């Protein structure tokens, strides 16, 4: 198959890692050889003198694969900032060629590579080069992770419009209950409105649950993974 998907979100902290981990676990259960990639991770802590990219580690654990960390996560930085800002602060240069070659290696080796961005689609990777540019250069279709709450129509439609402005294929939206909330009118109506105004499918709604591999949540991720595979 040798395909890739890019997981972006309407914001930081919407559940991109949680969703990517849920999908990787579901793909593994389906017998698909799937692997993660987190091109740049910021906000890494130091343990025993080494920077630990927690998102990349979570994704590696969910997929069960074994690869050198530098391939899955070519760049890791300490400041909890946008990659371009964190790199400047640390006096490091992020080079897209290094990301491309790691991605090509994974693409050739695995059935599907699940790439997680950082922040949202307009977050800068370095200087004026945005995740939007990286998605375009890697030629990847995107999945947009959105919140279920009031305000998400605006954020989701802005992300859709931005991706479309560069002719990026949008596979769909995953609405993720990142917090435990009481479902109101906004949460009930948002999926339908987003599908109607955004002209994209809502692939699924993920409930609040500590573990993306818990039986109920896993079932939902398997259904979403089946939909994704049918579009690739
Ligand atoms: N459906 C969910 N149920 C319970 N907790 C969730 C859910 N989705 C996400 N979380 C939790 O919310 C927090 C933020 O999620 P996550 O780290 O996946 O966001 P992100 O979009 O990847 O953030 P970043 O931009 O920093 O990469 C994490 O602690 C995660 O475990
Ligand atoms: Mg993340």
Quickly describe the structure.
The chain has helices at residues 16-29, 54-63, 69-72, 83-89, 96-109, 131-138, 152-165, 185-198, 215-231; strands spanning 3-9, 34-37, 40-41, 45-47, 50-52, 75-76, 112-116, 124-126, 129-130, 142-146, 170-176, 202-206. It has 232 residues and is of the alpha/beta class.
Q: Can you tag this structure with a few keywords?
A:
232 residues; alpha/beta; 6-stranded parallel β-sheet; two-stranded parallel sheet; 44% helix; binds adenosine-5'-triphosphate; binds magnesium ion
CATH uppermost class: Alpha Beta
> What compounds sit in this structure?
adenosine-5'-triphosphate, magnesium ion
Strand order of the largest sheet: 2-7-1-10-11-12
Low-confidence spans: none
| CATH level-two architecture | 3-Layer(aba) Sandwich
Largest sheet: 6 strands, parallel
Task: Write up this protein.
The protein is an alpha/beta fold and 232 residues long. It has a single domain, classed as Rossmann fold (3-Layer(aba) Sandwich), CATH 3.40.50. It is built from nine helices and twelve strands. The strands form four sheets. Strands 2-7-1-10-11-12 form a six-stranded parallel β-sheet, with helices on both faces. Strands 3-6 form a two-stranded parallel ribbon. β10 (142-146), α7 and β11 (170-176) form a beta-alpha-beta unit. The longest helix is centred in the C-terminal third of the chain and has 17 residues, at 215-231. The protein binds adenosine-5'-triphosphate and magnesium ion. The site of magnesium ion (MG) has 4 residues, from α1.
